[in-house]
Amino acid sequence: MTDGYRDRSGTDATNVALNGFVDIGDRLTLKPGFTWTDVAFELPGGLSGADFERDPEAAAYEDDKGSESGWGASLLAAFDYDSRFTLDVPVDFRTLEREADISASWGTNYYSYEQKQFAGRPRARLDASLASLPVRISGGLDYEGSLYTATQYAEEERDTTTAEYDFFQTAVSPWLSVRAE
Hints:
The chain is mostly beta strands. It is built from 1 helix and 9 strands, in the order βββαββββββ.
């Protein structure tokens, strides 16, 4: 029992994930995947224990709430040429939509967010000999990109826009590893 402290921290979530694989011949495997999520949540007030002890009524923001829904898809193509050379090409995409109604001393703010993410991480591995020393050479490229948009509204119906912004964030990381076996 919280006696009011950190009330409104409930969550209702539904998450679904489907994965599979199919072998195409002896050398190629495809692994598709799909996810779907739907979450509704309450937002408790941002009080410390001391703040709550001073004024328990300050914890009650009955309008604070949020939701998140989205889906994602992925595919891994795994190519095994022989026991010495493999190539994996995983890619995935995910989209999320969020809404949050957040109370403050100056009124309630209504936000809507959308996030789209893409990632690809191709990698290769070669087992070989260098001067009769067995080595494993691995390399790849890790890429992630995310487009994030947000809108703030004046009212719960989300008709009047008060602020908007968006940004694109990306990361690219090539890598190489050589290891004696």
